[in-house]
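Teaching soon. Invent one.


***
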Amino acid sequence: MNVTKDKISSVFFHYSIPSVLGMLAISSANIVDGFFIGNYVGDFGLAAINISFPIFSLLFGFALMLAVGSSVTTGKLLGEGNIKNASMIFTKTMICITSFSFILCTILFFNIERILHLFGADENLTIIAIEYLSIILIFIPFLMIGVVLDYFVRIDNRPNLAFVALVSSAFINILLDWVLIVYLQKGIFGAALATGISQLALLIILLPHFFSKKATLRFVKPIGNYMQILKASYNGASEFVNEISIGITTLIFNYVMIKNFHIEGVAAFTVINYLLLIGIMISFGISDSLQPIISKNFGAKENKRIEEFLKFAFITTSFVGIVMIMLIIFIPNTLANIFLEDSNYQTKQIVLSFATFIWAAFLFNGINLVISAYFTAIHKPLHSMIIAISRSFLFPIFFIFTLPFLFNTNGIFLAIPMAEFITFIIAMILLKKFSPKKIIYKEG
Protein backbone atom coordinates (compact mmCIF):
# COMPACT_ATOMS: atom_id res chain seq x y z
CA MET A 1 0.00 0.00 0.00
CA ASN A 2 1.29 3.45 -0.98
CA VAL A 3 0.58 5.64 2.05
CA THR A 4 1.27 8.86 0.11
CA LYS A 5 -1.19 8.16 -2.73
CA ASP A 6 -3.83 5.56 -1.82
CA LYS A 7 -7.26 6.36 -0.38
CA ILE A 8 -7.04 8.05 3.04
CA SER A 9 -9.52 5.81 4.86
CA SER A 10 -8.01 2.62 3.38
CA VAL A 11 -4.50 3.57 4.48
CA PHE A 12 -5.67 4.66 7.94
CA PHE A 13 -7.55 1.45 8.69
CA HIS A 14 -4.92 -0.75 7.01
CA TYR A 15 -2.39 0.55 9.54
CA SER A 16 -4.57 1.32 12.57
CA ILE A 17 -6.60 -1.91 12.78
CA PRO A 18 -3.57 -4.24 13.09
CA SER A 19 -1.94 -1.76 15.48
CA VAL A 20 -5.04 -1.52 17.68
CA LEU A 21 -5.58 -5.28 17.66
CA GLY A 22 -1.93 -5.75 18.56
CA MET A 23 -2.23 -3.30 21.44
CA LEU A 24 -5.44 -5.02 22.55
CA ALA A 25 -3.55 -8.30 22.53
CA ILE A 26 -0.85 -6.79 24.74
CA SER A 27 -3.33 -5.19 27.12
CA SER A 28 -5.47 -8.33 27.28
CA ALA A 29 -2.37 -10.34 28.19
CA ASN A 30 -1.58 -7.84 30.95
CA ILE A 31 -5.17 -7.92 32.16
CA VAL A 32 -5.16 -11.72 32.20
CA ASP A 33 -1.92 -11.48 34.22
CA GLY A 34 -3.79 -9.24 36.64
CA PHE A 35 -6.75 -11.64 36.77
CA PHE A 36 -4.61 -14.70 37.59
CA ILE A 37 -2.36 -12.85 40.05
CA GLY A 38 -5.25 -11.08 41.78
CA ASN A 39 -7.29 -14.25 42.12
CA TYR A 40 -4.54 -16.86 42.73
CA VAL A 41 -1.75 -14.86 44.41
CA GLY A 42 -3.69 -12.01 46.05
CA ASP A 43 -3.25 -8.34 46.97
CA PHE A 44 0.46 -8.71 47.59
CA GLY A 45 0.98 -10.11 44.07
CA LEU A 46 -0.75 -7.11 42.49
CA ALA A 47 1.22 -4.73 44.71
CA ALA A 48 4.51 -6.47 43.79
CA ILE A 49 3.86 -5.88 40.09
CA ASN A 50 3.01 -2.23 40.66
CA ILE A 51 6.04 -1.57 42.88
CA SER A 52 8.22 -3.00 40.08
CA PHE A 53 6.63 -0.83 37.39
CA PRO A 54 9.21 2.04 37.41
CA ILE A 55 11.90 -0.45 36.33
CA PHE A 56 9.80 -1.48 33.32
CA SER A 57 9.20 2.19 32.52
CA LEU A 58 12.93 2.86 32.30
CA LEU A 59 13.67 -0.13 30.06
CA PHE A 60 10.57 0.07 27.87
CA GLY A 61 11.01 3.85 27.56
CA PHE A 62 14.51 3.49 26.15
CA ALA A 63 13.32 0.86 23.67
CA LEU A 64 10.45 3.13 22.56
CA MET A 65 12.77 6.12 22.21
CA LEU A 66 15.02 4.22 19.80
CA ALA A 67 12.11 2.50 18.05
CA VAL A 68 9.97 5.59 17.48
CA GLY A 69 12.78 8.04 16.73
CA SER A 70 14.69 5.78 14.36
CA SER A 71 11.61 4.38 12.59
CA VAL A 72 10.20 7.88 11.95
CA THR A 73 13.56 8.98 10.51
CA THR A 74 13.67 5.79 8.45
CA GLY A 75 10.10 6.40 7.24
CA LYS A 76 11.01 9.88 6.02
CA LEU A 77 14.05 8.46 4.17
CA LEU A 78 11.90 5.74 2.56
CA GLY A 79 9.38 8.42 1.55
CA GLU A 80 12.25 10.24 -0.16
CA GLY A 81 13.44 7.00 -1.82
CA ASN A 82 16.71 6.77 0.14
CA ILE A 83 16.72 3.04 0.96
CA LYS A 84 20.46 2.80 1.59
CA ASN A 85 20.51 5.32 4.46
CA ALA A 86 17.24 3.89 5.83
CA SER A 87 18.85 0.43 6.13
CA MET A 88 21.93 1.95 7.77
CA ILE A 89 19.82 3.60 10.48
CA PHE A 90 17.92 0.34 10.99
CA THR A 91 21.15 -1.67 11.43
CA LYS A 92 22.76 0.80 13.83
CA THR A 93 19.56 1.03 15.89
CA MET A 94 19.49 -2.75 16.32
CA ILE A 95 23.13 -2.76 17.46
CA CYS A 96 22.38 -0.02 20.03
CA ILE A 97 19.25 -1.64 21.50
CA THR A 98 20.88 -5.08 21.75
CA SER A 99 23.96 -3.76 23.56
CA PHE A 100 22.11 -1.43 25.90
CA SER A 101 19.34 -3.86 26.88
CA PHE A 102 21.66 -6.64 28.06
CA ILE A 103 24.05 -4.29 29.89
CA LEU A 104 21.34 -2.37 31.78
CA CYS A 105 19.31 -5.48 32.69
CA THR A 106 22.46 -7.12 34.08
CA ILE A 107 23.15 -4.08 36.29
CA LEU A 108 19.55 -4.00 37.52
CA PHE A 109 19.51 -7.77 38.16
CA PHE A 110 22.35 -7.52 40.70
CA ASN A 111 20.76 -4.54 42.49
CA ILE A 112 17.10 -5.58 42.71
CA GLU A 113 16.75 -5.55 46.50
CA ARG A 114 18.42 -2.16 46.90
CA ILE A 115 16.18 -0.64 44.21
CA LEU A 116 12.97 -2.04 45.73
CA HIS A 117 13.85 -0.56 49.13
CA LEU A 118 14.32 2.81 47.43
CA PHE A 119 10.85 2.37 45.94
CA GLY A 120 9.37 2.04 49.43
CA ALA A 121 8.72 -1.71 49.49
CA ASP A 122 8.66 -3.34 52.93
CA GLU A 123 10.30 -6.73 53.63
CA ASN A 124 7.27 -8.86 52.71
CA LEU A 125 6.61 -6.96 49.47
CA THR A 126 10.32 -7.04 48.59
CA ILE A 127 10.46 -10.85 48.82
CA ILE A 128 7.56 -11.25 46.36
CA ALA A 129 8.83 -8.51 44.02
CA ILE A 130 12.33 -10.07 43.87
CA GLU A 131 10.81 -13.43 42.94
CA TYR A 132 9.01 -11.66 40.06
CA LEU A 133 11.81 -9.36 38.87
CA SER A 134 14.63 -11.91 38.98
CA ILE A 135 12.88 -13.81 36.15
CA ILE A 136 11.54 -10.82 34.21
CA LEU A 137 14.93 -9.09 33.96
CA ILE A 138 16.41 -12.15 32.22
CA PHE A 139 13.84 -11.86 29.42
CA ILE A 140 13.32 -8.09 29.10
CA PRO A 141 16.21 -7.59 26.61
CA PHE A 142 14.29 -9.76 24.14
CA LEU A 143 11.19 -7.60 24.66
CA MET A 144 13.19 -4.40 24.08
CA ILE A 145 14.69 -5.78 20.86
CA GLY A 146 11.25 -7.06 19.80
CA VAL A 147 9.64 -3.64 20.35
CA VAL A 148 12.21 -1.98 18.07
CA LEU A 149 11.74 -4.69 15.42
CA ASP A 150 7.96 -4.20 15.64
CA TYR A 151 8.27 -0.53 14.65
CA PHE A 152 10.65 -1.25 11.77
CA VAL A 153 8.42 -4.06 10.47
CA ARG A 154 5.52 -1.60 10.28
CA ILE A 155 7.61 1.10 8.62
CA ASP A 156 8.65 -1.62 6.11
CA ASN A 157 4.99 -2.01 5.02
CA ARG A 158 4.25 -5.16 7.07
CA PRO A 159 1.72 -3.96 9.71
CA ASN A 160 -0.08 -7.32 9.60
CA LEU A 161 3.11 -9.20 10.53
CA ALA A 162 3.58 -6.85 13.49
CA PHE A 163 -0.01 -7.62 14.51
CA VAL A 164 0.51 -11.39 14.22
CA ALA A 165 3.63 -11.16 16.39
CA LEU A 166 1.88 -9.17 19.13
CA VAL A 167 -1.18 -11.45 19.13
CA SER A 168 0.97 -14.59 19.21
CA SER A 169 3.01 -13.20 22.10
CA ALA A 170 -0.16 -12.34 24.01
CA PHE A 171 -1.71 -15.76 23.37
CA ILE A 172 1.43 -17.53 24.61
CA ASN A 173 1.41 -15.35 27.74
CA ILE A 174 -2.23 -16.13 28.52
CA LEU A 175 -1.80 -19.88 27.93
CA LEU A 176 1.34 -20.07 30.09
CA ASP A 177 -0.33 -17.98 32.81
CA TRP A 178 -2.99 -20.66 33.18
CA VAL A 179 -0.48 -23.53 33.05
CA LEU A 180 2.07 -22.03 35.48
CA ILE A 181 -0.15 -20.08 37.90
CA VAL A 182 -3.33 -22.18 38.03
CA TYR A 183 -2.35 -25.69 37.00
CA LEU A 184 1.22 -25.91 38.37
CA GLN A 185 0.55 -23.34 41.16
CA LYS A 186 3.87 -21.50 40.69
CA GLY A 187 2.44 -18.17 41.86
CA ILE A 188 4.30 -14.95 41.05
CA PHE A 189 7.27 -16.95 39.72
CA GLY A 190 4.96 -18.58 37.17
CA ALA A 191 3.53 -15.20 36.13
CA ALA A 192 7.03 -13.84 35.50
CA LEU A 193 8.11 -16.92 33.53
CA ALA A 194 4.97 -16.80 31.36
CA THR A 195 5.55 -13.14 30.55
CA GLY A 196 9.25 -13.72 29.82
CA ILE A 197 8.70 -16.58 27.38
CA SER A 198 6.00 -14.61 25.54
CA GLN A 199 8.46 -11.71 25.10
CA LEU A 200 11.00 -14.05 23.50
CA ALA A 201 8.31 -15.18 21.03
CA LEU A 202 7.93 -11.59 19.76
CA LEU A 203 11.57 -11.52 18.67
CA ILE A 204 11.45 -14.97 17.06
CA ILE A 205 8.46 -14.03 14.87
CA LEU A 206 9.64 -10.59 13.71
CA LEU A 207 13.36 -11.05 13.04
CA PRO A 208 13.07 -13.38 9.98
CA HIS A 209 11.25 -10.65 8.00
CA PHE A 210 14.48 -8.68 7.53
CA PHE A 211 16.11 -11.68 5.85
CA SER A 212 13.16 -12.29 3.51
CA LYS A 213 12.53 -11.12 -0.08
CA LYS A 214 9.66 -8.90 1.12
CA ALA A 215 11.98 -6.68 3.17
CA THR A 216 13.03 -3.24 1.93
CA LEU A 217 15.10 -2.62 5.05
CA ARG A 218 18.14 -4.87 5.38
CA PHE A 219 20.96 -5.48 7.82
CA VAL A 220 24.01 -3.77 6.30
CA LYS A 221 27.60 -3.23 7.39
CA PRO A 222 27.55 -0.23 9.81
CA ILE A 223 29.70 2.60 8.47
CA GLY A 224 30.60 5.85 10.19
CA ASN A 225 29.63 7.17 13.62
CA TYR A 226 26.31 6.87 15.42
CA MET A 227 25.33 10.57 15.41
CA GLN A 228 22.33 9.74 13.21
CA ILE A 229 21.02 7.42 15.91
CA LEU A 230 21.53 10.07 18.60
CA LYS A 231 19.57 12.58 16.52
CA ALA A 232 16.86 10.01 15.79
CA SER A 233 16.69 9.12 19.50
CA TYR A 234 16.14 12.78 20.32
CA ASN A 235 13.13 12.74 18.00
CA GLY A 236 11.76 9.79 20.00
CA ALA A 237 12.72 11.34 23.35
CA SER A 238 9.10 12.20 24.14
CA GLU A 239 8.33 8.46 24.31
CA PHE A 240 11.20 7.93 26.76
CA VAL A 241 10.14 10.93 28.84
CA ASN A 242 6.56 9.68 28.81
CA GLU A 243 7.49 6.19 30.03
CA ILE A 244 9.94 7.45 32.67
CA SER A 245 7.37 10.00 33.81
CA ILE A 246 4.74 7.29 34.17
CA GLY A 247 7.21 5.23 36.21
CA ILE A 248 8.03 8.14 38.54
CA THR A 249 4.36 9.07 38.81
CA THR A 250 3.49 5.46 39.67
CA LEU A 251 6.21 5.50 42.32
CA ILE A 252 4.76 8.66 43.90
CA PHE A 253 1.18 7.40 43.61
CA ASN A 254 2.28 4.18 45.33
CA TYR A 255 3.77 6.24 48.16
CA VAL A 256 0.59 8.30 48.54
CA MET A 257 -1.66 5.22 48.35
CA ILE A 258 0.39 3.36 50.98
CA LYS A 259 0.32 6.41 53.25
CA ASN A 260 -3.45 6.83 52.95
CA PHE A 261 -4.76 3.30 52.31
CA HIS A 262 -1.86 0.93 53.19
CA ILE A 263 -1.04 -2.09 50.97
CA GLU A 264 -4.70 -2.28 49.83
CA GLY A 265 -4.24 1.15 48.29
CA VAL A 266 -1.35 -0.02 46.08
CA ALA A 267 -3.36 -3.09 45.02
CA ALA A 268 -6.36 -0.86 44.22
CA PHE A 269 -4.18 1.49 42.17
CA THR A 270 -2.90 -1.55 40.24
CA VAL A 271 -6.49 -2.51 39.36
CA ILE A 272 -7.24 1.06 38.24
CA ASN A 273 -4.16 0.95 36.03
CA TYR A 274 -5.51 -2.20 34.40
CA LEU A 275 -8.80 -0.38 33.66
CA LEU A 276 -6.92 2.63 32.24
CA LEU A 277 -4.71 0.30 30.22
CA ILE A 278 -7.58 -1.00 28.07
CA GLY A 279 -8.64 2.40 26.71
CA ILE A 280 -5.18 3.92 26.57
CA MET A 281 -3.69 0.98 24.65
CA ILE A 282 -6.42 1.22 21.99
CA SER A 283 -5.83 4.97 21.60
CA PHE A 284 -2.09 4.37 21.68
CA GLY A 285 -2.49 1.81 18.89
CA ILE A 286 -4.33 4.38 16.76
CA SER A 287 -1.83 7.17 17.45
CA ASP A 288 1.11 4.80 17.03
CA SER A 289 -0.11 3.69 13.61
CA LEU A 290 -0.10 7.33 12.49
CA GLN A 291 3.67 7.69 12.85
CA PRO A 292 4.76 5.69 9.77
CA ILE A 293 1.86 7.16 7.76
CA ILE A 294 2.48 10.79 8.70
CA SER A 295 6.27 10.54 8.53
CA LYS A 296 6.10 9.29 4.93
CA ASN A 297 3.53 11.92 3.93
CA PHE A 298 5.66 14.52 5.66
CA GLY A 299 8.62 13.44 3.51
CA ALA A 300 6.36 13.66 0.43
CA LYS A 301 5.02 17.10 1.60
CA GLU A 302 1.35 15.99 1.56
CA ASN A 303 -0.14 18.28 4.23
CA LYS A 304 -3.79 17.77 3.24
CA ARG A 305 -3.45 14.01 3.61
CA ILE A 306 -1.89 14.47 7.07
CA GLU A 307 -4.87 16.63 8.12
CA GLU A 308 -7.30 13.91 7.00
CA PHE A 309 -5.38 11.22 8.87
CA LEU A 310 -5.55 13.36 12.04
CA LYS A 311 -9.33 13.77 11.66
CA PHE A 312 -9.81 10.01 11.42
CA ALA A 313 -7.64 9.53 14.49
CA PHE A 314 -9.51 12.13 16.55
CA ILE A 315 -12.88 10.57 15.72
CA THR A 316 -11.82 6.99 16.51
CA THR A 317 -10.01 7.81 19.78
CA SER A 318 -13.01 9.90 20.95
CA PHE A 319 -15.30 6.93 20.26
CA VAL A 320 -13.00 4.66 22.29
CA GLY A 321 -13.11 7.18 25.15
CA ILE A 322 -16.93 7.24 25.17
CA VAL A 323 -17.12 3.43 25.31
CA MET A 324 -14.66 3.29 28.23
CA ILE A 325 -16.57 6.02 30.11
CA MET A 326 -19.83 4.06 29.80
CA LEU A 327 -18.20 0.86 31.07
CA ILE A 328 -16.59 2.56 34.09
CA ILE A 329 -19.74 4.51 35.02
CA PHE A 330 -22.29 1.71 34.63
CA ILE A 331 -20.40 -1.51 35.58
CA PRO A 332 -17.50 -0.53 37.89
CA ASN A 333 -18.23 -3.34 40.35
CA THR A 334 -18.12 -5.96 37.58
CA LEU A 335 -14.77 -4.60 36.38
CA ALA A 336 -13.34 -4.67 39.91
CA ASN A 337 -14.52 -8.27 40.41
CA ILE A 338 -12.35 -9.41 37.49
CA PHE A 339 -9.21 -8.81 39.57
CA LEU A 340 -10.38 -9.11 43.16
CA GLU A 341 -12.04 -11.83 45.20
CA ASP A 342 -14.97 -11.00 47.50
CA SER A 343 -12.64 -11.28 50.50
CA ASN A 344 -10.69 -8.22 49.25
CA TYR A 345 -13.52 -5.93 50.38
CA GLN A 346 -11.36 -2.98 51.43
CA THR A 347 -9.33 -2.99 48.21
CA LYS A 348 -12.50 -3.20 46.15
CA GLN A 349 -14.03 -0.16 47.89
CA ILE A 350 -10.93 1.91 47.07
CA VAL A 351 -11.19 0.80 43.41
CA LEU A 352 -14.85 1.87 43.26
CA SER A 353 -14.03 5.25 44.80
CA PHE A 354 -11.27 5.74 42.22
CA ALA A 355 -13.62 4.75 39.37
CA THR A 356 -16.10 7.46 40.41
CA PHE A 357 -13.61 10.07 39.15
CA ILE A 358 -11.17 8.35 36.79
CA TRP A 359 -13.65 8.02 33.88
CA ALA A 360 -13.19 11.72 33.01
CA ALA A 361 -9.60 11.02 31.87
CA PHE A 362 -11.00 9.26 28.77
CA LEU A 363 -12.52 12.53 27.53
CA PHE A 364 -9.05 13.81 26.70
CA ASN A 365 -6.30 11.16 26.78
CA GLY A 366 -6.90 9.76 23.27
CA ILE A 367 -6.63 13.17 21.60
CA ASN A 368 -3.53 13.98 23.67
CA LEU A 369 -1.86 10.78 22.45
CA VAL A 370 -2.71 11.49 18.80
CA ILE A 371 -1.30 15.02 18.88
CA SER A 372 1.86 13.82 20.62
CA ALA A 373 2.35 11.14 17.92
CA TYR A 374 1.78 13.76 15.20
CA PHE A 375 4.58 15.97 16.53
CA THR A 376 6.95 13.00 16.73
CA ALA A 377 6.14 12.04 13.12
CA ILE A 378 6.88 15.57 11.79
CA HIS A 379 10.18 15.75 13.72
CA LYS A 380 9.02 18.12 16.45
CA PRO A 381 10.21 16.13 19.49
CA LEU A 382 10.11 19.07 21.91
CA HIS A 383 6.41 19.67 21.33
CA SER A 384 5.67 15.96 21.63
CA MET A 385 7.72 15.88 24.83
CA ILE A 386 5.77 18.81 26.31
CA ILE A 387 2.51 16.91 25.84
CA ALA A 388 3.97 13.62 27.10
CA ILE A 389 5.55 15.05 30.23
CA SER A 390 2.49 17.20 31.01
CA ARG A 391 0.02 14.30 31.00
CA SER A 392 2.25 11.69 32.61
CA PHE A 393 4.37 13.61 35.10
CA LEU A 394 4.10 17.35 35.75
CA PHE A 395 0.35 17.71 36.22
CA PRO A 396 -0.36 14.32 37.87
CA ILE A 397 2.31 15.05 40.48
CA PHE A 398 1.14 18.64 40.94
CA PHE A 399 -2.49 17.63 41.40
CA ILE A 400 -1.88 14.61 43.63
CA PHE A 401 -0.18 16.90 46.17
CA THR A 402 -2.53 19.90 45.83
CA LEU A 403 -6.05 18.54 45.25
CA PRO A 404 -6.21 16.57 48.54
CA PHE A 405 -6.08 19.92 50.37
CA LEU A 406 -9.36 20.85 48.64
CA PHE A 407 -11.10 17.47 48.31
CA ASN A 408 -9.42 15.24 50.93
CA THR A 409 -8.69 11.71 49.60
CA ASN A 410 -10.96 12.33 46.59
CA GLY A 411 -8.28 14.73 45.41
CA ILE A 412 -5.98 11.72 44.84
CA PHE A 413 -8.58 10.19 42.52
CA LEU A 414 -9.03 13.47 40.60
CA ALA A 415 -5.32 13.99 39.85
CA ILE A 416 -5.16 11.95 36.61
CA PRO A 417 -8.36 13.37 34.98
CA MET A 418 -7.28 16.93 35.79
CA ALA A 419 -3.81 16.27 34.35
CA GLU A 420 -5.31 15.01 31.07
CA PHE A 421 -7.64 18.04 30.86
CA ILE A 422 -4.89 20.65 31.29
CA THR A 423 -2.67 18.73 28.85
CA PHE A 424 -5.52 18.71 26.32
CA ILE A 425 -5.63 22.53 26.38
CA ILE A 426 -1.87 22.73 25.83
CA ALA A 427 -1.96 20.12 23.03
CA MET A 428 -4.72 21.95 21.12
CA ILE A 429 -2.82 25.25 21.33
CA LEU A 430 0.34 23.58 19.97
CA LEU A 431 -1.58 21.83 17.17
CA LYS A 432 -3.15 25.11 16.05
CA LYS A 433 0.27 26.80 15.98
CA PHE A 434 2.03 23.92 14.21
CA SER A 435 -0.66 22.56 11.88
CA PRO A 436 0.33 20.33 8.92
CA LYS A 437 -0.23 23.18 6.46
CA LYS A 438 2.04 25.59 8.37
CA ILE A 439 4.77 22.99 8.98
CA ILE A 440 4.99 21.79 5.37
CA TYR A 441 4.82 25.34 4.02
CA LYS A 442 7.80 26.18 6.24
CA GLU A 443 9.64 23.01 5.13
CA GLY A 444 8.93 23.76 1.46
Notes: The mean pLDDT is 85. The radius of gyration is 21 Å. Residues 8-443 form one domain.
